[in-house]
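Project channel, design review

CF: Before we commit to the Pontivivens insulae constructs, I'd like one complete example in the thread so the newer folks can see what an input/output pair looks like. Taking cysteine desulfurase.
RD: sounds good, go ahead.
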Amino acid sequence: MYDVHAIRADFPILSREVNGKPLVYLDNGASAQKPQAVIDAVVKGYAEDYANVHRGLHTLSTISTENFEAVRGKIARFLNTPTEEGVIFTTGSTMGFNLIAYGWAMANLREGDEILISVMEHHANIVPWHFLRERMGVKLVWVAPEADGSFDVGKVADAITDRTKLISLTHMSNVLGTIVDIAGVVELAKPRGIPVAVDGSQASVHMPVDVAALGCDFYAITGHKLYGPSASGAVWISDARMAEMQPFMGGGDMIRTVAQDEITYNDPPHKFEAGTPGIVQMIGLGAALDYMSALGMENIAAHEAALRDYALERFRSLNWLNLQGTAPGKGAIFSFTMDGGAHPHDISTIVDQKGVAVRAGHHCCQPLMQYMGVSATTRASFGLYNTTEEVDVLVDALETCHRLFG
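CF: and here is what came back for cysteine desulfurase:
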């Protein structure tokens, strides 16, 4: 049985007050809170087991290395990736997409080649491709969502040309909650030999992900959204794409030998992991994945679906609230504006006085804001510890805001 109140007790920060009110944390799309198990793993990593990883022969280095490398398998199992060796540790999805851009795309794309992306993408899955547009002359081809925020895979089929060399899409929009049919995109791309990269920053948090079933070539995740530490994450890369890549960063750990006139590289995954990594951050991410797996991703998804449905029912009773994105089956992520002149920044500031934490701005999705015809939205994003009672607190806070501006 999914006991959300017992789960909440695992998160120390949820017991605090903000502005004299119980904290209602609805900014999970930006960064999630951490359970005590993750906090304990980080403290233990520094207080009891810390040493640098790899090559150290002393006891602490061995323990640290074993704990650190064990996370690779945990990520592989969490995402059901075809290979564990394809899991590259990163600081998050931003680093993951830069690794794909500099390690794979720069070595395999040429001037005039096309990268197909959606208007819904986070800047992490836009800006690296703009770098290639500026520096190599590749072309960005954009696919827009439907009016309700849903994403028609048929538009991807229509946009593919002989010059399409990469398709890079979000699995779940961090603004609209829209879930993209990645398997359907792969079915279109694979016969044409087009690699598919996926931003799993949101999807991996809210629903079971089976990378093997999706069939994609790259899949990136971000640890701090997965209830783990900041500066942790990974990107899984298929064997075929890995063989086509060149190292993105140079330094320790990614080399086998260094001489004055030559170097030889380490084997993957270490070939793409230069320098001393975020050792304790990754161990903390491993603890977060253990925690989520123990709850069950299917159970988390079912709980959040119930929250989504309840929130939608409450929001639809507010005829002055304009929801952005109502696609069927979307995640529990809601972006909205309000009639009456309240700017999203105003809304966020006012509901904060009720203890409610939401985010306001463009959410690192400026092309999507432009497409929707707004400069910013307020976003309430739910997680595994949120409750229907917190939805009610949010609605009450929004009604207060509307009265002030109405």
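RD: helpful, thanks. The chain has a mean pLDDT of 97.
CF: Residues 10 and 296 are 16 Å apart (CA to CA).
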